[in-house]
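Hi support team,

I've been running sequence recovery on a batch of backbones for a student project. Most finish fine, but this one hangs at about 90% for roughly twenty minutes before it completes. I'm not sure whether the input is malformed or the queue is just slow. I've pasted the structure tokens below so you can try to reproduce it. Let me know if you need the job ID as well.

Thanks,
M.K.
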């Protein structure tokens, strides 16, 4: 089965709204973690919309900021954000529906929406009759992000509006680099450069050193990216299990990526300062954020993550006084495209099946068009949460001026780099059955949880047995 990619030609639709513009030369993240964006309300508005965004507090502030701006320009519309507490997991949609509280607009993860899109919870936004201007709007977005909106390999529908272009990047602690006397790599660096840089940081300069060179996220997008670079896949295009393809030979791609992880996390490698593991693993970069410039050791000066965590990292840097920056994900020059791949995922907002009234649907669509417009992105730039999905904003907009409280600007180019090729991260939509995609996610997660605990052969066999007994072809 081949994934159909939607061509990106036209510029994004400009939603005609009265809005305000930023004039500052640098957008600083000044929001304190214990503050929140206060909801505003248009009393007696004729249009009432509900939005359940992600339950995360920063995500709620993002949507509330958009809602406040939109209501300011459209007095006949009132938008209630997270009236039921937001979406923690996608299965919350079932509970909301059973309660009779399914919102008009729902947050969704790009790599988790397929089950819900395929079972009718979300409306197809490619339908120009219901959502005028749809084609031009989505044509202005990055191809890999729009690819995430399909619910299986043959689907051409668009089931949610992507809100962020989340390429994997490497966040760096420039203060730790300086303390170690190590130069920050250039934007065209490779995985060889990553290893060499890690060695230098861990060796230190006699008075300062790093415990690890790199912190990896225990996260499906990172695993999927590394698998693609090594030529590995969970399932091939025909639906057959492919994780153990070539096992018993030197050409087993999944074994090769498993070995790379095992060497990085569990086995000593040749570091100038002595044998050390060059990477550690956490869920969201806790080791990276815990840096204290007053100590003589840095836990990890680099972490793999996406723009969505910039706000959290900059808050940590601001609180203890160190300098954050970012580099593109390094090129993997032995990949089959000779430069490497990087996952480009997104989350976004779907218009649900509950929004059946034509007028409400019209305003829900206008609201999402505003959110993902150039003005909409400028209005939330100070939160450091979203990298715009609009190709027109690759080198412009207030997001390019994001800085810490000392005025140090973040290298925004890292988040839209072209040194590697994008892959969409909705990896489970190779399956035709949307009901089975959650199973594939679970089997993949279990496979990687075995890293450092069980052998590759045993873990791959476990994956195959589960996959073939419940999902697909043998």
């Amino acid at each position: 089965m081949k994934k159909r990619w939607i061509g990106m030609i036209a510029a994004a639709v400009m939603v005609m709204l009265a809005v305000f513009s930023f004039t500052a030369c640098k957008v600083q993240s000044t929001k304190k973690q214990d503050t929140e964006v206060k909801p505003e309300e248009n009393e007696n508005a004729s249009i009432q919309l509900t939005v359940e965004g992600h339950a995360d507090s920063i995500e709620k502030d993002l949507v509330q900021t958009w809602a406040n701006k939109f209501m300011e320009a459209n007095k006949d519309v009132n938008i209630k954000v997270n009236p039921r507490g937001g979406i923690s997991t996608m299965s919350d949609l079932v509970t909301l529906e059973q309660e009779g509280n399914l919102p008009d607009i729902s947050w969704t993860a790009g790599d988790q929406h397929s089950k819900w899109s395929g079972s009718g919870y979300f409306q197809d936004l490619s339908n120009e009759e219901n959502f005028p201007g749809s084609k031009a709007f989505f044509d202005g977005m990055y191809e890999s992000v729009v690819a995430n909106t399909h619910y299986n390999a043959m689907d051409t529908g668009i089931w949610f509006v992507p809100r962020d272009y989340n390429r994997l990047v490497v966040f760096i602690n420039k203060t730790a680099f300086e303390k170690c006397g190590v130069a920050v790599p250039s934007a065209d660096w490779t995985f060889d450069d990553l290893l060499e840089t890690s060695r230098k940081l861990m060796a230190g300069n006699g008075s300062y050193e790093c415990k690890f060179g790199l912190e990896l996220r225990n996260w499906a997008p990172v695993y999927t990216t590394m698998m693609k670079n090594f030529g590995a896949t969970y399932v091939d295009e025909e639906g057959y299990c492919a994780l153990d393809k070539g096992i018993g030979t030197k050409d087993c791609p999944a074994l090769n990526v498993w070995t790379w992880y095992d060497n990085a996390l569990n086995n000593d490698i040749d570091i100038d300062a002595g044998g050390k593991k060059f990477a550690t693993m956490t869920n969201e970069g806790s080791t990276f954020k815990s840096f204290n410039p007053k100590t003589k050791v840095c836990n990890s000066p680099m972490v793999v993550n996406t723009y969505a965590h910039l706000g959290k990292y900059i808050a940590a840097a601001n609180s203890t006084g160190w300098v954050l920056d970012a580099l593109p994900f390094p090129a993997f020059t032995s990949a089959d495209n000779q430069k490497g791949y990087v996952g480009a995922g997104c989350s976004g907002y779907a218009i649900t099946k509950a929004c059946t009234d034509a007028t409400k649907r019209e305003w829900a669509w206008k609201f999402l068009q505003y959110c993902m417009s150039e003005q909409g992105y400028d209005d939330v730039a100070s939160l450091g949460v979203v990298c715009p999905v609009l190709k027109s904003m690759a080198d412009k907009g207030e997001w390019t001026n994001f800085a810490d409280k000392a005025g140090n600007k973040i290298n925004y180019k890292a988040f839209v780099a072209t040194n590697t090729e994008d892959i969409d991260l909705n990896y489970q939509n190779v399956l035709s059955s949307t009901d089975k995609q959650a199973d594939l996610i679970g089997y993949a997660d279990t496979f990687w949880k075995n890293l450092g605990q069980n052998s590759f052969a045993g873990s791959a066999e476990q994956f195959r047995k589960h996959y073939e007994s419940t999902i697909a072809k043998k």
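--
Follow-up from support: It reproduced on our side and the slowdown came from queue contention, not your input. The radius of gyration is 23 Å. No action needed from you.
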